[in-house]
Design a protein that fits this description.
Keywords: Metal-binding, NAD, Transferase, Zinc. The chain contains 9 helices and 9 strands. It has 278 residues and is an alpha/beta fold. Bound molecules: zinc ion.
Length: 278
């Protein structure tokens, strides 16, 4: 029988619900976790949809620069010189918040499930890479879909790395590079410089994040992994996301269908209301 336990942090029935959640997780062996911006808010990284979110913070600091929350992550930003500058500025601001952030209790909880051999995989919308700081291997090259041991799928990429737009060399996104982004620029690729390329052919480093309107370069592999995970999933735990991103909604629907019919449960933990259309 499928059991849906909806846990609201504002509910008076919290104790009862938390016991219910514990009971389901205790018997699960292959938890699937899907996370969103909400799990990193207590680390000082605001989400960008809620009223005190990232967009409102940026809007008050940089009036007139961004028109909407979606603007911050839209691939359209990369079309003109002026909007690329805004995008770089935003990436610099966000990276600075991330550099100073520590993993939250939720990150530790997810790692604990992994250590207890209860986690099948965590699908992460967050780009802050805090999961690596609690000890997860995030360097999945997607070359192995069958028996893939890496337990983290970064659905929207990561702001821990930069990729050259000319030679595709990958570098760490260091605090020094952060300063360049915060001025609206993008650093030159050290690999291109070292190869002695002529200035015109030296690439720029771009954050390895997936924007709205962008396709994930490994989207096919991710859907293959998700399909395999669906066969095993015995508990679906969704945390800190308001289910507004269409691709993620589809992923959740797939897992929800898979646990339906087993003696399994779907647990949704979110402070704000979730999208109910579709
Ligand atoms: Zn390069």
């Amino acid at each position: 029988m499928e059991k849906i336990v909806k846990l609201s942090l504002k509910s008076e029935n919290d104790c009862f619900l938390i016991r219910e959640v514990n009971r389901h997780i205790a018997k699960a062996k292959n938890c699937i976790i899907i996370t969103g911006a909400g799990i990193s808010c207590s680390a000082g990284i605001p989400d960008f949809i809620s009223s005190d979110g990232l967009y409102n913070m940026i809007k008050s600091q940089y009036p007139g620069v961004f028109r909407s929350g979606k603007d911050l992550f839209d691939v359209q930003l990369l079309r003109t010189h002026d909007t690329i500058k805004r995008f770089n500025l935003f990436m610099g601001i966000l990276k600075e918040l991330i550099v100073n952030a520590k993993p939250t209790a939720t990150h530790s909880f997810i790692k604990k499930l992994a250590d207890m051999k209860k986690l099948k995989r965590v699908y992460i919308q967050n780009i802050d890479n805090l999961e690596e700081l609690v000890g997860f291997d995030v360097n999945w090259q997607f070359e192995r879909v069958k028996n893939c041991k890496v337990q983290v799928v970064q659905l929207h990429g990561t702001l821990s790395k930069l990729r050259c737009n000319a030679c595709t060399n990958i570098c760490l996104f260091t605090p020094q590079y952060c300063e360049i982004f915060k001025e609206g620029g993008a650093p030159n690729c050290p690999e291109c410089v070292e190869r002695g390329r002529r200035p015109h052919f030296i690439g720029q480093l771009k954050p390895t994040v997936i924007l709205y309107g962008d396709t994930h370069p490994k989207g096919l592999e991710i859907s293959q992994i998700a399909k395999r995970d669906q066969d095993k999933a015995d508990c679906l735990l969704i945390m800190g996301t308001s289910l507004r991103i269409p691709g993620v909604k589809d992923l959740i629907k797939g897992f929800a269908r898979a646990v339906h019919g087993h003696d399994s449960c779907i647990i949704l933990v979110n402070v704000t209301d979730v999208a109910n259309k579709g």
